[in-house]
Amino acid sequence: MLEQFIKIKNSALAEIQSVKNSAELEALENKLLGRKNGELTNLLKGLKDLSSEEKKSVGQAANDVKQTIESAMAEKKSELARAEWVKSSEKESMDVTQPALPSKSRGHFHPITLVQNKLEDLFASMGFMVLDGPELESDYYNFTAVNIPENHPARDTQDTFYIKKHPNWLMRTQTSSVQVRAMQKYGAPLRAIVPGRCFRNESTDARHEHTLYQIEGVVIDSGINFGNMKAVLEQVVKNLYGAETKLRLRPKYYPFVEPGVNGEITCVLCQGKGCRVCKQSGWLEIFGAGLIHPNVIKEGGIDAKKYQGFAFGFGLDRLVMLKYGIDEIRVLKSGEMKFLEQF
Ligand SMILES: [Zn+2]
Question: What is the whole-number distance in angstroms between the Cα of residue 266 and the centre of ligand 1?
Fold first, then answer.
């Protein structure tokens, strides 16, 4: 019986050496050590019929044989695995100039936030506070306090969403709602901007949205004049659209300023030559502004004889659309990845 073990060991070791791949090795392992009909397994099963003395000598040798075969198998197995790995990696083409794949996809700021941050930095450098205000606002702060009393026609142009059973509460239509809040809280002199979300109850199209972003500015001090206002706004548009951008102010009526103006810049798309976006005029309207109406200053609890001020309001969505050449406002809040990934 001992000879049988030696014989099986020798042939097994030779066979292991000649194996060419892991499938062959697996088949050989099964042939020798398979639990049901493995050659070595069967031989080992025969040990139980030996006398106890034979068991002692043969058993020890059988165990050695089994271990030798098993470790030769294990060695062959890892040798084959290494060889197969090298072979498969040689097959893959490798381009060393290929950029590393991103390990994770990372988010980034929305274009509206990018422009808002830029403006906040600019205004902060000019000594402005950055203020916040409630989106659910009272009728008083949104309209009455900024010189738009009940039944004033300007209310018709700013329809919004009202709260059921609370007729005095509404979703603010403009960040101007924070003007009087800021005056009441901080008094004069005052320099503040208010970026934020506003709402309009209107049907949407390429240029209109029910939810929009504005940035309001308010300055109160003694001896404020129109020139101060123009100087600040010139800085803003040059910072946003480049030093060569020109600004012009044209009279326009807003209830909370007197006089009021429309701020227009040289068209950023055609550089003033005239195109579809600027309706061939070469100018684009980007904000409303003016000297604050004394009624509004009084409403803020400030002496309107001693202090004057100016205010301005930008539509952030419009600034973003012009900056990046976007002609459809609704994509801004669409959550569309194809659009957002461009920024
Ligand atoms: Zn143009």
Answer: 8
